[in-house]
Amino acid sequence: MIRRALGAAAALALLAAGTGWVLTAPEPLPEEVLAGPPGDAARGARVFAAAGCAACHVAPEADIGDAPVLSGGRAFASPFGTFYAPNISPSTQGVGDWSDAEIVNAVMRGVSPSGAHYYPALPYAAYARAEPQDMRDLVAHLRELPPSEAENRPHDLPFPFSIRRGVGLWKLMNLREEWVVDGDLPEPAERGRYIAEALAHCGECHTPRGPLGGLDQARWLSGAPNPSGEGRIPNITPAGLDWSEEDIAYYLETGFTPDFDTAGGEMALVVEEMARLSSEDRAAVAAYLKSVPPVE
Amino acid sequence: MSRPIRLALAAAGLTALAGLASAQAFEPQKAHELRESHMKLMGAHLGVLGAMAKGETDYDAATAGAAAGALAGLADAVGAAGDVYWVEGSSSEQIADSRALPAIWEKMGEFEEHQASLVEATSVMQDAAGTDLAALQGAMGGLGGACGDCHKAFRKPEE
Question: Where is the signal peptide (chain A) (predicted)?
């Protein structure tokens, strides 16, 4: 009797572990999503700027400029340890030998070419909402940037966060393809939602996180502690930011606030990227921010 | 005058000058307050240029030119006042409300390069502001970049 109960418990545990193993498995994009016309590098340059790739993937202290060298190496402190941005330049150390589909899978699903999870320091939870064609365009642009043979530095994470398989659980809890600000938005706010939620990943810094590092979508864009430990990332919902749409768009273009102070910290890098978008796209982001539910 | 006496007089003069310079440096609290006033003045003139760039007020070449001139003068003055503004003991870790990161003193060479970029960007604006509105609008991005680059590296984020 006892043996049978033990046996059943063991079987259940095995089943649970097996289910967990299956549930936490990396899930690449389906073939039909990856198939499509080849990327357009000129279009991709704007997607690349909107997605803010260079701000994280250039070398520490390096300028972004017109042809950033995506050699990686910048450190990102978090409550789970320190992440180091990898080399994503078109080289053997970077992603030069990867197929387009492998790069798109990395960006939109957080899955490496060998099938391992990437940590969500790469904001694939945002990029998962992107148009696959935009991602193919982005890849075409990426391949035209200067190569770097800089070696990748391993992340510095304590146990249990050092186990990549655990990221599968995080993905189960946090990957959503739906918009955070859902429903129909009037143009240009809808275009702005696409830029802000799928590409520019504003929420990664401006939204507070739960204990496991998932974004608290009920408090979307309402401000959060600065992961670097200095100050706070501001609330940019209408409850926290009363600038006009014109003022927001102008800030994203030049870095000047309405009283002509300027963006500092990481936001100065974001402005550098947003300045490369069209004025229509910046106005769209401003319109979107006015559509976000106000959170005190 | 004999050479030794000339040398002695020169040395005495240098010592006196050095004494004068240290006597003239501001107290850290005072340096912090004056730096902030200086930045706010720059903001005032930027505000005139920016209102025209954004179309909130009509473009006027004379007004824009004067604001750009004042801004360029203020940018020069930041550099010239370096020794009295960036005194030891006035960083964000030493003065309440100061946002001047200790990195300024650790990387003074880099900090001064940013000041030179600011002078350059204000001089570009000085040429552009009196020309026409499109030129003024075009120069705003460069100014924002010069301000932002330095703030990114050397200014403490807001609490």
Answer: 1-24
In this structure, is residue B1 part of a structural domain?
A: no
Q: Report which of A177, A172, A221 is spatially closest to residue A196, judged by C-alpha positions.
A: A221
- How many domains does one find in chain A? 2
The domain of A117 spans: 28-177
Q: What is the pTM of this model?
A: 0.85
Alpha-carbon separation of residue B2 from B5, B6, B11, B14, B15 (angstroms)? 5, 6, 14, 19, 20
Cβ of A256 within 8 Å of Cβ of B46? The answer is yes
CB contact under 8 A, B140 and A254: yes
A254·B143 Cβ contact <8 A: yes
Sort out which chain B residues have CB atoms less than 8 A from A265's CB and list them: 151-152, 157
Whether the CB of B52 is below 8 Å from some CB of chain A: the reply is: no
A13: CB partners within 8 A, 6+ apart? none
Query: What is the number of structural domains in chain B?
Result: 1
Q: What is the DSSP letter of A262?
A: B
B136 interfaces chain A, CB cutoff of 8 Å = no
Question: In B, which residues are within 8 Å of A253 by CB distance?
Answer: 141, 144
* Residue A90, in any domain of the structure: yes
Alpha helices by DSSP H, A130-278: 132-142, 166-174, 189-193, 203-206, 245-254, 265-274
**CB of A255 closer than 8 Å to CB of A217:** no
Distance CA A131, CA B74 (A): 47
Q: How far apart are CA A279 and CA A81, in angstroms?
A: 38
| Dihedral sign computed on CA atoms, order A38, A275, A108, A154 | positive
Q: For position B136, which CATH number holds?
A: 1.20.120.10
The enclosing domain of A76 has a CATH number of 1.10.760.10
- Model confidence pLDDT, tens digit, residues A83-114: 999 999 999 999 999 999 999 999 999 999 99
Residues of chain A positioned with their CB less than 8 A from the CB of B42: 260
pLDDT by residue (tens digit) across B7-34?
A: 555 555 444 444 444 546 789 999 999 9
A282 token code pair = 């910046």
Is the Cβ–Cβ distance between A72 and A86 less than 8 Å? yes
Judge if the upstream peptide bond of residue A38 is cis by omega within 30 degrees of 0: no
List chain A residues with CB under 8 Å of B102.
none
How many residues does the structure list for chain B?
A: 159
ipTM higher than 0.90? Answer: no
**Is B147 assigned a ligand-binding role in the annotation?**
yes
* Residue B22 bridge partners (DSSP): none
**Residues A115 and A48 placed together within one structural domain of the fold:** yes
